Amino acid sequence: MQARGPLMIEHRLIERMLSVVKGVLADIESTHEVDPVFVDVAVDFIRMYADRTHHGKEEDILFRELNDKPLNEKDRKIMKELIDEHVFGRHTTKALVEANARYRNGDDTALTEIAARLQTLAEFYPRHIEKEDKVFFPASRAYFTDEEDQAMLSEFWEFDRRMIHEKYETLVEGLEI
Ligand SMILES: [Fe+2]
Ligand SMILES: [Fe+2]
Q: Which of 23, 50, 71, 81 is most buried, most CB within 10 Å of its CB?
């Protein structure tokens, strides 16, 4: 498997989650309410899986390695866009968490904000994923030898191996406060 293999497999799971989110958005439209626990679960998926585990491998390994390569102007511009989009995703998720807290505390007006933020995530992520799958990953592969690509793949597996421990260490630390 090439290094981009696990990243593309992860994209498919993110897309499935976004389909679930779209279904919930349709429910919000018809019922004018949302289950705050669903929002918690969606946020956990976005933060732990899409951001920490998936963007983590992109930023901490793939983009780090590409930084040392003589990227042409177009590829460097796209890498910058991708990093900016990861940041945008984090800000949107933070706003979603804040709106969910307001909704839980009885502020019904927060529902509009929850729906808007979920809609933003459901619309922007597929475009981000397509840019990586169809444009950036194929272009970036050309900068690596087969050996370098396989070394990144090994580092991806090691990165993943740590994630489950990090998730639950963070959970316990949060409960200890
Ligand atoms: Fe990405
Ligand atoms: Fe990605």
A: 50
- Note the ligand closest to the C-alpha atom of 133: 2
C-alpha 132/C-alpha 139 separation (Å) is: 9
CB neighbours (10 Å) of residue 71? 16
- Chain-centroid distance of CA 41 in Å reads 14
The Å distance, Cα 104 to ligand 1 centre, comes to: 31
Length of the chain measured in residues: 177
Ligand 2 centroid from CA 127, angstroms: 10
Is the CB of residue 92 less than 8 Å from the CB of residue 107?
A: no
The reply to whether the predicted model has a pTM over 0.85 is yes
> Could you tell me the distance, in angstroms and rounded to a whole number, from the CA of residue 82 to the centre of ligand 1?
6
Structure tokens at 4: 């981009």
For residue range 121-154, list pLDDT tens digits in order: 999 999 999 999 999 999 999 999 999 999 999 9
